[in-house]
Specification:
The chain is mostly beta strands. It is 14% helix and 38% strand. It has eleven helices and 96 strands. Strands 2, 3, 5, 7, 8, 9, 12 and 13 form an eight-stranded mixed β-sheet that branches. Strands 48, 49, 51, 52, 53 and 54 form a six-stranded antiparallel β-sheet that branches. Helix 6 (491-567) crosses helix 8 (592-611). The radius of gyration is 58 Å and the shape is extended. It starts with a helix and ends in a 5-residue tail after the last strand.
């Protein structure tokens, strides 16, 4: 350790002096020397900031690194940290991209953004990519309410794709995190140019050479594929999710390296494919269907349809036919752009790698694996009832995690309809088809590997008689789902077969394993023969080495003798060694012995210097002659020896001899009681083992350091207890300590932790950024100390570096060196050196900035001004300024149509330029370059920009005739609002005679036109003139006569009101006639009106009206208005003419009358229901409406609603006392009218059975309480007996309280019900008790008649036809009829000869010949003729009726 420290001091001194010393493995550090940034000897005086030497620590948020500038933070202060870091984005080109972040820290941090590969700027001592902010490209924002820092890209472009860094900085530290932005370009070949340019810039890698070479015709060489070729073809066409599985299968361990190499191969493949194919999609790997056929499917658009397509299997071309029906095993079917390769009659020999090539370029590859599996039990046919589950199950001969299921040739998956289950041993597979319906029937197949089996699923629909009457057509709702499963076999039998197959499979695997072991044994036997031959050769070589060892022994004896003569003995006093302190090795002497003593003395001196405070050391040197003896070699060691080189064999023999000599020395040591501090081995001389001569003897020097008490060591004894105490342990004190007493010994080891550390001065130099130019090289080196072994790793932007053509790494003892040559701009970034040993790790960071020429400026060009006098444009700064500050923009200009470019020179650092040397209407193109200290960038050529486009002025306002005379006309107009960007120079004025199509100029174009002819009519138009020329013409003016002004007209004649309403008023009049010299004819009229309470007149029309009839609108109902009309012409307005009296805004007076002639005067309402009476009428003015009941005002429980022309009376719940005559009275100033309606509620009363008469039954009952109130009330009697339990009507419309029923059969029980009925229906029934007549039994003899065949077939006949129906709108309507016929006839309902059987608005039933139809809500569309047709094979019958729409009382 002392030696390393000494070297470090010497190195530091050497660096300060600028010297280079190869022994200490250190290099000179300088800023820029010989075009190489070889050193980093920059201290604080050179600009390095103390923050860069801060303490690095990780944040609680993953991916955030914090640098703390101070060792201890002040109270209440904190370093910046991210509470929410930005999230990576993958977004389509042209969309809005936003990154958001939240930070904390005290004081509040400052947020900045950078790009990993952008224009570097020096910020806080680091190189970071500059983000150029512009409202159109990139904006940085901060929301105080949410505390979010955002950076937005309004329309993200492909060049914005990069790794962005977000920095949060305050005076105590800085936090940084990175986020990735990926931009998806639209189209197949959008990024080809970028990939091609990148490929040309990078060093060419012949990665595709590992694949097959091609013949001149584009086909592959006929030979099997190598494993490496096969795995790369599989990876090129595989999905990313399958990479890990493929790597495990083929034993690829360097996953990162594989991905890097695969990415480069894919880029090269895309370039090759793009030569022949314009678009590829839908790449489906090989699949096996239920017809024992495997298919490969892909969609590709060939640039040349005649391009040749090849199919290969394991690198060997496979012939195929163009149609599926041909006899060849392989076939190709092409449908448009879709290519489908098929393999029929599959077998185990079909397994392999299939590749599709186009003109010698591989397009797609897929691997086809054929598992060795058969169906031990195939699926069987299943018959299931509707709404029942069906189960298919099979047993395999070998385990498979899943198999494919097909239903009617379509692949199935786990969903709500299908469920696929596999047993734990993966042998039994099941498919459950849930809730089977007839549509689910068909062939189902199971596919395992290339084997398949299929079976039918038959779904039977079971007829339910109970649903026949409700749904005779079988189209009703489906029945309930069943919980049973059809097709389930004997599970125990399947388990037994599965166990047999499992045992068989295990046995086959054991046999294969035994065969593999046998083959391995045979191979090992062959290897053993080869090793035996090698051992024989090695024995001969060992004999030669033995001779050499004998010579070494003789030389050792000679040196021993010479040493005795030089030193005079083998022992020296301990005091002499301590006093010397490492000064000399003993007495001088001639020969090898003297040399050895000197070397030993030097070694002791080193140890004495290293021990430092230890005052007393005893040293004993024992030189032991190594005896030659036979070494017993084990067989395993012997095999290792055979693989050794000659140098390794010599080293191994020397180490074995040293170990043996050490044992002999330890046996000769005599010590009664002392501490042994450390044992150390050294070899005589400084030469390498490979350079040692055969005459030199390897000697062992054993140093035993006895220890005594000192300042740092304390040795004490307490009885038999001995103690050694070390006060301050240093690295030199680590090792094995031994205590010996009377031949007994004990040991203990002190391990001193020594983590790697950097030299503080060198670390300061290392952290300073290194700035180099493109193509130069940069060197990073840093010395360190620590316990070996130390793992040294170099990183660039977080990616570990390894030895490559442009990367050289030299990590020697105590120093790490990184050399980067041929640097590019993209190599800029963070350089990290990481050291790690068993005690800890440490990192050091620096920055590499590679300067290069800037990239061209970025478009698109923004035109700020393009006028006739100047062009001002603006562009975006370059994406990468090459790490330098922009000095100037250099511009050139070309006028479109010319070949020369005019140099405009340097314009400064602003990305904008105003060009005033332009000609109006000319188009110009510009070239823009960026100039920095590293040079001038490539040019950016802009699109054409026109100086002051031909912008014509807009149209002036329509001309207004100011005055007209027989010899001149005066006009006026307003200038155009759109002047075309320039000033108006003048106007063009044109005229046209009425009836002509030709416009002529007015000369001169003055506002006073004198070029007119008296008595003719003219119209005029005008256009404005600017720098671009005449603009648009205005709209033509009104026709004007060239004549002297007219006199105003007189008053209108016969002004009157012809019609009126509540909102309008229609006037009529006659225009005044012209009187020469007094008044002229009127050209039009103005109508004015004013309310009676307002003294100001309001004009109803702004333009003159030529008509003599006018309707004034927007009046207030019943308001009072004054009206007048004024005639006008070109000479002015005449005197107004008023009406004689005011006008009321109301229609003409009308006496009240009722408009609905069908309103009923009698209404029967069931008690408890609502009663409505709607009355429609007309009257003017609006009348007063009153309702009366029996001549008195209605009660408050009755609601009356009045509207315009209608009135409604509503009784929400009618009672018996609501019966009466309701009268409505409509009255206005003209007259009065009334209408009456009578309302009767439905009666209800109990009835009773009075008596029974033998032979007949007389039923009597008490009269209903409503009989006196309702003269329409009558009774109905129904009967049933024990023979016929159903009730049937025996008497109806009985107006008294008795009924006698005859034909009473003895021994039968009778019951009767009596109902009270009126127009609204029947009341509840009153039932009699049971009644019967008994009679004596008489013997009855039955004489059988001969049976006759009876034919019951008959044509349909309506027993009860349809009746006429009239129903109010919105109510129900029920139609019914009875029909008979044998066989049962089919029933069809028609409305206006249109079938209603499928119309869901009608409820149609047919129960035992009783046909009925219910209309839920009657509307206007339901009225018309209804017809029912009954038809069977014997004939046909019809019945028709009509449905009338009875008007409702209220809507």
């Amino acid at each position: 350790m002392w030696k390393k420290s000494k070297m470090a001091d010497q190195t530091a001194a050497g660096q300060g002096a600028g010297s280079t010393h190869r022994d200490t493995k250190m290099w000179k550090k300088s800023k820029m020397a010989d075009q190489t940034a070889a050193g980093q000897g920059v201290d604080l005086s050179d600009g390095a900031l103390p923050e860069e030497r801060g303490i690095r620590k990780k944040s609680k948020v993953p991916g955030v690194m914090i640098t703390q500038f101070l060792e201890e933070l002040p109270e209440g202060m904190s370093t910046p940290d991210f509470t929410r870091k930005p999230i990576a984005l993958t977004i389509q080109e042209g969309k809005l991209a936003v990154f958001k972040a939240k930070v904390v820290g005290s004081p509040e941090p400052v947020i900045s953004w950078g790009r990993a590969s952008g224009e570097p700027v020096i910020s806080w001592g680091r190189a970071s990519g500059e983000v150029v902010y512009h409202p159109d490209t990139c904006m940085q924002k901060y929301d105080k309410d949410t505390g979010e820092h955002t950076i937005e890209f309004p329309k993200v472009a492909p060049e914005d794709a990069d790794t962005y860094k977000c920095f949060a900085t305050n005076k105590h530290g800085r936090a940084v995190c990175t986020v990735l932005l990926n931009v998806i370009e639209v189209g197949f070949n959008k990024n080809k140019a970028f990939q091609r340019a990148e490929g040309e810039a990078s060093e060419p890698l012949e990665l595709r050479k590992v694949l097959k070479k091609r013949k001149p015709d584009g086909t592959r060489e006929e030979k099997p594929m190598e494993p490496e070729e096969k795995v790369w073809e599989i990876l090129l066409s595989a999905d990313k999710k399958d990479y890990e599985r493929i790597c495990i299968e083929y034993g690829i361990t360097n996953f990162r390296g594989m991905l890097k190499r695969l990415s480069e191969m894919k880029k090269e493949k895309e370039d090759e494919v793009a030569q022949f194919v314009s678009h590829i999609s839908t790449l489906k790997h090989i699949e096996v269907d239920d017809s024992d056929c495997a298919t490969i499917e892909l969609d590709m658009d060939l640039k040349d349809p005649s391009s040749k397509v090849f199919l290969y299997k394991d690198g060997v071309m496979v012939p195929f036919s163009k149609e599926l029906g041909d006899e060849l095993k392989h076939s190709l079917k092409q449908v448009g752009k879709k290519y489908i390769f098929s393999i029929k009659k599959l077998g185990a020999e079909d397994a392999g790698l299939y590749s599709v090539d186009v003109e010698g370029v591989n397009i797609f590859s897929t691997e086809f694996k054929v598992p060795e599996v058969e169906f031990a039990v195939k699926i069987q046919e299943v018959k299931a009832e509707e709404r029942e589950d069906a189960l298919f199950q099979c047993v395999l001969s070998a385990p498979m995690s899943e198999i494919k299921w097909f239903g009617k040739s379509a692949p199935l998956c786990n969903d709500d309809k299908h469920e696929m289950i596999a047993s734990e041993d993966k042998l039994i597979h099941k498919l459950i088809v849930k809730d089977c319906m007839p549509v689910d029937g068909g062939i189902y197949a199971a596919v395992a590997g290339i084997k398949s089996c299929n079976a039918w699923l038959i779904v039977e629909r079971k007829f339910d008689p109970s649903l026949a009457d409700k749904d005779p057509a079988g189209k009703g709702k489906k029945g309930a789902r069943k919980g049973t499963v059809a097709g389930g076999g004997n599970d125990e039998e399947l388990m037994r077969i599965a166990k047999e197959q499992q045992a068989k499979f295990n046995k086959e695997m054991e046999e294969k394993l035994a065969a593999a072991k046998k083959a391995q044994a045979e191979k090992e036997a062959q290897d053993a023969l080869a090793r035996a031959q090698a051992q024989a050769d090695a024995k001969a070589e060992a004999e030669a080495k033995a001779a050499a060892m004998a010579a070494d022994k003789a030389a050792a004896k000679a040196r021993k003798a010479a040493g005795k003569k030089g030193t005079g003995g083998t022992k020296k006093t301990a005091g002499g060694a301590a006093a010397a302190g490492g000064g000399g090795g003993g007495g001088g002497g001639d020969g090898d012995g003297g040399d050895g003593g000197g070397s030993g003395g030097a070694g002791a001196g080193e140890r004495g210097a290293a021990a430092g405070p230890v005052a007393a050391l005893e040293e004993e040197e024992l030189k032991v002659e190594l005896e030659e003896e036979e070494l017993k070699v084990e067989p395993e060691v012997q095999r290792e020896m055979e693989r050794e080189t000659e140098e390794q064999a010599e080293e191994r023999v020397a180490q074995a001899m040293e170990r043996e000599a050490m044992v002999q020395v330890m046996e000769k040591i005599k010590a009664t009681k002392y501490w042994v501090m450390k044992m150390r081995k050294e070899r005589w001389g400084k030469t390498e083992r490979s350079g040692r001569s055969a005459s030199e003897k390897p000697l062992l020097l054993l140093k035993l350091l006895s220890i005594k008490s000192s300042d740092k060591l304390d040795i004490s004894k307490d009885g038999s207890f001995h103690r050694l105490k070390i006060h301050k342990v240093t690295e030199e004190m680590g090792g094995t300590y031994r205590f010996e007493a009377d031949g007994r010994k004990t040991e203990a080891t002190i391990a001193v932790e020594d983590p790697p550390r950097f030299n503080a001065g060198d670390l300061t130099d290392f952290t300073a950024p290194i700035i180099v130019k493109k193509g130069q090289k940069a060197t990073f080196k840093l010395s360190f100390i620590g316990r070996d072994p130390i793992k040294v790793q170099w990183y660039l932007e977080g990616e570990e570096l390894s030895e490559e053509s442009h990367i050289k790494i030299d990590n020697t003892e105590g120093c790490g060196r990184l050399l980067l040559i041929k640097l590019l701009r993209k190599d800029s970034g963070d350089i990290k050196l990481k050291l790690k040993n068993e005690f800890g790790s440490i990192e050091a960071h620096s920055q590499l900035i590679v300067l290069d020429k800037p990239t061209p400026p970025q478009g698109p060009l923004e035109i700020i001004e393009a006028s006739s006098s100047a062009i001002e444009v603006k562009w975006r700064s370059p994406k990468d300024a090459g790490g330098c500050k922009i000095d100037n923009y250099i511009l050139e200009r070309q006028q479109v149509g010319r070949n020369t470019w005019k140099k405009l020179g340097s314009i400064g650092t602003e990305a904008t330029y105003r060009d005033t040397d332009v000609d109006h209407g000319r188009r110009y193109c510009y070239r823009i370059r960026v100039e920095t200290e590293m040079g001038i960038s490539e040019m950016m050529e802009t699109e054409d920009v026109q100086a002051g486009t031909k912008a014509y002025s807009g149209a002036p306002s329509t001309l207004k005739v100011v005055s007209a005379f027989k010899d001149c006309i005066n006009l006026a107009w307003a200038p155009p609002t759109n002047t075309g960007g320039t000033s108006i120079l003048g106007y063009n004025l044109e005229k046209r005679k009425k009836g002509s199509n030709l416009w002529g100029p007015v000369n001169p174009p003055d506002q006073m036109i004198k070029d007119v002819t008296e008595g003719l009519q003219y119209e005029f138009r005008v256009s404005a003139i600017n720098d671009s020329g005449p603009g648009e013409f205005s709209n033509p003016s009104e026709f004007v006569f060239a004549r002297d002004p007219k006199k105003p007209p007189g008053k209108v004649i016969d002004l009157k009101v012809t019609d009126s309403s509540y909102n309008t008023l229609t006037l009529a009049w006659t225009n005044p006639k012209g009187i020469p010299g007094v008044q002229d004819e009127a050209k039009g009229n103005y109508i004015e009106i004013r309310p009676a309470e307002n003294p100001e007149w309001e004009s109803c029309n702004t333009n003159l009206i030529t008509s003599t009839v006018y309707t004034v609108k927007g009046l207030k109902s019943m308001a009072m208005y004054w009206v007048r009309v004024t005639a006008a012409n070109d000479g002015g307005n005449g005197e107004p003419q008023d009406l004689d009296n005011y006008i009321l805004a109301m229609p003409p007076r009308v006496r009240p009358r009722f408009t609905d002639a069908k309103t009923k005067s009698f209404m029967v309402v069931q008690a408890g229901n609502a009663a409505r009476i709607n009355i429609n009428f007309e009257a003017s003015p609006w009348p007063e409406v009153n309702w009366l009941k029996d001549g008195n005002p209605v009660s408050k429980r009755v609601t009356v609603s009045n509207a315009e022309g209608a009135s409604q009376l509503l009784i929400p719940s009618s009672e018996r006392f609501d019966t009466g005559v309701y009268t409505v009275q409509v009255k206005n100033i003209v007259g009065q009218e009334s209408f009456s309606v009578e309302i009767r509620p439905k009666p209800a009363g109990p009835v009773e059975l009075d008596e029974n008469v033998p032979g007949t039954v007389t039923v009597s009952w008490t009269a209903s309480p409503d009989e006196k109130l309702d003269d329409r009330l009558y009774y109905k009697v129904t009967k049933r007996d024990s023979a016929k339990p159903s009730w049937r009507t025996v008497a109806d419309r009985i107006f008294n309280n008795k009924y006698t029923h005859c034909n009473i059969m003895p021994d039968r029980e009778y019951q009767f019900k009596v109902y009270a009925k009126n127009d609204m229906g029947s009341s509840k029934s009153s039932m009699s008790g049971k009644w019967s007549i008994t009679r004596k039994k008489v013997k009855f003899t039955l004489k059988e008649r001969e049976s006759k065949t009876c034919n019951l077939e008959r044509p349909p006949k309506f027993l009860l036809p349809l009746k006429l129906h009239s129903a109010p709108q919105g109510y129900e309507c029920y139609m019914s009829c009875a029909v008979r016929g044998d066989p049962a006839p089919s029933i069809t309902w028609l409305r206006n000869n249109l079938s209603l059987n499928t119309n869901t608005n009608y409820l149609i039933t047919n129960t035992c010949g009783v046909c009925s139809m219910l209309i839920l809500r009657v509307g206007l569309k339901d009225t018309g003729e209804y017809k029912i047709i009954a038809e069977n094979q014997m004939g046909r019958a019809e019945s028709a009726t009509k449905l009338l729409n009875e008007p409702t009382l209220w809507r």
